[in-house]
Amino acid sequence: MRIMKAEQFALEREVDSGTEAQSLIVKEIIDGIRQGGDAALIRYTEQFDKIRIENLLITYEELHAAYAEVDEDFLKAIRQAAVNIRSFHEKQKRNSWMDLQPSGTLLGQVIRPLSRVGLYVPGGKAAYPSSVLMNAIPALVAGVKELVMVTPPATAGEPGVNPYVLVAAAECGITEIYRVGGAQAIAALAYGTETIRRVDKIVGPGNIYVALAKRHVFGKVDIDSIAGPSEIVILADDTANASYLAADLLSQAEHDEMASSVLITPSLRLAEAVSKEVMRQLAELPKKEIAGASIRDYGAILLVDNLDEGIDAVNRLAPEHLEVVTAEPYDVLGRIENAGAIFLGPYSSEPVGDYFAGPNHVLPTNGTARFSSALSVDDFIKKSSVIHYSKQDLMANGEAIITLARREGLDAHANAIAIRMLKEEKNHDGK
């Protein structure tokens, strides 16, 4: 693993925006779903997944049967993870509020959940039951009444859906599940078909065609984000265990050839030990080709003069995942400005957060932690301002409102205030 000075490293990855040909395919699919509805969904599924589906909706019997295909250890683990995730997100809930002022004016904010949300879950080889929990539970905690899931058939030639994904959905209480994927599923969620009613928001990861479709329908519906490749940054000092750090770096590298794994340290001894340990562990990984490409092209060990310089480098990179493995990690915490999720101490390995602890694993990538946050309950609510202005406050502040409106050249706005003030002045004079 390459070792260099921090100032020499620049993580340059672009979010895959697809090719012009891919964009045209996605547009054609979306137009096809808008015009053809269910028939187009079935046709595109046969075309792309090589499966002829008869029923779009997963039946209760299929959901029930999925439980027989998963092991008890998985069921126990996913149930405990769901408890932890729900507990964490319950603390994010907000309340509506009203502020009644002495003048009689009332100002406030009403918070309501979105009515209907669509969850996209990849299928086949890229099946992630944990993502079902991470996307569904915040929506349920927010109070979303209708949560619908779409996921492609698991195996080419067979209409079934990955049983682990189905069980994760059932454990969240999701019963409206459709066996469709790709851009056609995104289009169905956004515009609706005879069977699938349209949603207010679409969340969940997918391939480039799913990402392009989400980008295309944004505005018709809300979306979570267009995520880039995964990344981890570890800030560590001489107290850290090299084998732990190497394992954590590789845990992200196995995601994608473009994933980025970076260690920042003032210790040359640790840097050299981690570099050797990464190579040793890499040779034993089932996905060593993917992880190896990631480490080679986007991985690095950055040497800094001290932890202060290391913290500056962290804030510059704004990583999706940040591990702080130093003698006093809490001393560092208050100085971290940009990170999607922060893991403190030697036993807070990134997979703890990915699967089990409770915080959400849907995080900002590609440096967007500078201005965005983890998926949360806030992503599934909407806020309405409430204004009940009193006569007293209108008369007291009307001239200021009129001034602002006229400075913007909006005389009708100004008149809407002036006509009320004139009326009240006439009433006051008895005319």
Plain-language structure description:
By secondary structure, this protein is of the alpha/beta class. It contains 15 helices and 14 strands. The protein has three domains: 20-223, 3-Layer(aba) Sandwich (Rossmann fold), CATH 3.40.50; 228-371, Rossmann fold (3-Layer(aba) Sandwich), CATH 3.40.50; 391-429, no CATH class. The protein has helices at 20-49, 60-67, 72-90, 129-142, 163-171, 182-191, 208-217, 242-253, 268-282, 288-298, 307-317, 329-333, 350-355, 391-407, 411-429; strands spanning 3-5, 97-100, 106-113, 116-120, 146-150, 176-178, 201-203, 222-223, 231-236, 260-265, 300-303, 321-325, 341-344, 381-388. Helices cover 45% and strands 15% of the residues. Helix 8 packs across helix 9 (268-282) and helix 14 runs antiparallel to helix 15 (411-429). Strand 2 and strand 3 form a beta hairpin.
CATH class of the largest domain: Alpha Beta
Identify the CATH homologous superfamily of the largest domain.
Nitrogenase molybdenum iron protein domain
Classify the helix fraction into a percent range.
40-55%
Q: Which structural class fits the helix and strand makeup?
A: alpha/beta
Helix-strand pattern: EHHHEEEHEHEHEHEEHEHHEHEHEHEHH
Number of domains: 3
Report the count of strand segments: 14
Output the strand order for the largest sheet.
1-11-10-9-12-13
Structure in a nutshell:
By secondary structure, the chain is of the alpha/beta class. It has helices spanning 20-49, 60-67, 72-90, 129-142, 163-171, 182-191, 208-217, 242-253, 268-282, 288-298, 307-317, 329-333, 350-355, 391-407, 411-429, and strands at 3-5, 97-100, 106-113, 116-120, 146-150, 176-178, 201-203, 222-223, 231-236, 260-265, 300-303, 321-325, 341-344, 381-388.
